[in-house]
Specification:
The chain has 477 residues and is α/β, with parallel strands linked by helices. It has a domain of 94 residues. The chain contains 15 helices and 15 strands. The longest helix has 13 residues.
Length: 477
């Protein structure tokens, strides 16, 4: 598939059916049942991956350098079934999963490369990596400062409560993934530094907190990837939601996972795959809504037999699958990719949900796209899909005040501006309200925006500052 950046008014090529998977160099015949069980491949396994041995030695060394700072993890399903190795390094799933030199700033890459070339001690390499990580904004959007709740003087570890209706839960057993995305905004959970982690080591704190907050209707179990956990562990967290009358107000259970992409055998061939589906079915039959918040970044991830079987089995269990992804340079920064992906998701019975803007963390400089370009790509994609795919929202920034959608670039009262609105906010009263930021063709993230029309601040600024200074609850109840 050739990469095409669409121009307004022209339907982009690359729509479903324009080229067979075989012509594109992909194989969609991954068996329904795996020939081997899941085995994680980490940075130490990079020299052992046969496909990598065809790459230049400098590229392989660069991978080791970047993997000393940012997390790397993969598995044979991803490597053997999702990547077209004839297209490397341009293959999108390769870019999603394998470290690239540009993911570190040149000065940081050179520093770590020098350490590795002179066989520096493990202590020196660890310290060098830590210094670089501290510069990469490991906890964006106030995750630690504003989102972790307190009851009295007690901090409730492993929870985030940013929006009134929704609590995020980080079970300690789910703080890894079947493979890691190179652009992940939660990379700090995976680098082995306990000072950077947000985790809960037991379930009682979660259930007690939910019981004390009747406004909470949604629980999002996240990570890492909670689907890395065994079903028996997952059940320990979820079953009280249908058995404890104190938790009747929690009606929606969201599970953030990329297992459908990176290890769909979790729902098909794993030893406890059937048990997991029965657990989800039990929750649905008890009257709760189960939403699998799936992360598909490219239509290439949807082509194997086993992912389609996993999707079917989740639907049979009563779960709804909603799909979300950030817009990423090198991976999906063209309308043809999004059109094909959204149409394929709808055809498979899933719901397109969000196009996100890449967050200001980790390898952001490698992946980020200017907001104006993101808006154009979204609009050019949105207008060429049917109404069934127009459930998707975006491009959306999960910023410190809330989820902010870039609706358009317009000229108003003689000034070119970004038209914005809150899709979600720390104060629910902000939701749906349009506001305007001064146009800047280079800006890539919310914090780079400034009020339009000569205004000194946005409409929500005073309320938000009061929250930060502790004069208003982080979430308004």
């Amino acid at each position: 598939m050739s990469k095409v950046v669409s121009e307004p008014g022209n339907k982009p090529p690359g729509a479903p059916g324009t080229m067979s998977l075989q012509e594109e160099g992909l194989d969609n015949t991954a068996p329904i049942f795996p020939s081997e069980r899941y085995k994680a491949l980490s940075a130490k396994h990079l020299p052992e991956i046969p496909q990598l041995q065809k790459l230049p030695a400098d590229d392989r060394f660069a991978m080791q350098v970047v993997a000393s700072v940012l997390p790397f993890r993969s598995n044979r399903y991803v490597i053997d079934n999702l990547i077209d190795w004839d297209r490397v390094p341009d293959d999108p799933v390769y870019q999603i999963t394998f470290p690239q030199q540009g993911m570190l700033e040149s000065v940081d890459f050179s520093h770590m490369a020098d350490l590795m070339r002179r066989d520096a001690s493990a202590k020196e390499i660890k310290e060098g990596a830590h210094e670089i990580r501290e510069k990469l904004n490991p906890h964006p959007a106030g995750q630690r400062e504003l989102n972790i709740p307190q009851v009295g003087n007690e901090t409730i570890h492993g929870l985030q409560h940013k929006y009134r209706e929704t609590v995020l839960f980080f079970p300690s057993q789910g703080q890894t993934c079947h493979a890691y995305c190179t652009f992940c905004f939660r990379w700090a959970q995976f680098v082995g530094d306990n000072t950077l982690k947000i985790v809960a080591k037991e379930a009682d704190g979660l259930h007690d907190y939910l019981a004390a907050h009747p406004d909470v209707t949604d629980l999002l179990v996240t990570g890492g990837d909670p689907m890395i956990m065994k079903t028996a562990v997952f059940a320990h967290y979820l079953e009280p939601l249908v058995e404890d009358p104190r938790l009747a107000h929690v009606q929606d259970i969201r599970i953030g996972t990329k297992s459908l992409t990176f290890w769909p055998y979790r729902f098909v061939g794993d030893d406890d795959a059937d048990d997991m589906l029965r657990l989800l079915e039990k929750i649905v039959k008890a009257g709760k809504h189960v939403a699998i918040m799936a992360h598909f970044n490219h239509w290439q991830e949807l082509q194997t037999n086993v992912v389609r079987e996993a999707i079917r089995r989740l639907h049979d269990a009563g779960a709804v699958i909603r799909c979300q992804a950030p817009l990423l340079r090198h991976i999906n920064d063209s309308s043809d990719v999004w059109i094909r992906m959204w149409e394929e998701e709808v055809r498979l019975g899933m719901i397109p949900y969000y196009m996100f803007v890449e967050r200001d963390t980790g390898a952001r400089n490698y992946f980020e796209v200017p907001l104006e370009e993101a808006c154009r790509i979204f609009q050019n994609s949105y207008k060429y899909v049917s109404g069934l795919a127009r459930t998707v929202r975006g491009p959306s920034m999960s910023a410190t005040p809330g989820k902010v959608e870039v609706q358009d670039v317009q000229e108003i009262a003689g000034e070119k501006v970004f038209v914005l609105r809150f899709l979600q906010g720390r104060n629910p009263d902000w939701v749906g309200r349009p506001f305007f930021a001064a146009y800047d063709p280079e800006v890539t993230w919310f914090d780079g925006l400034r009020p339009a029309f000569g205004q000194e601040k946005f409409f929500y600024t005073d309320d938000f500052n009061a929250m930060v200074q502790g004069r208003w609850p982080t979430t308004k109840h």
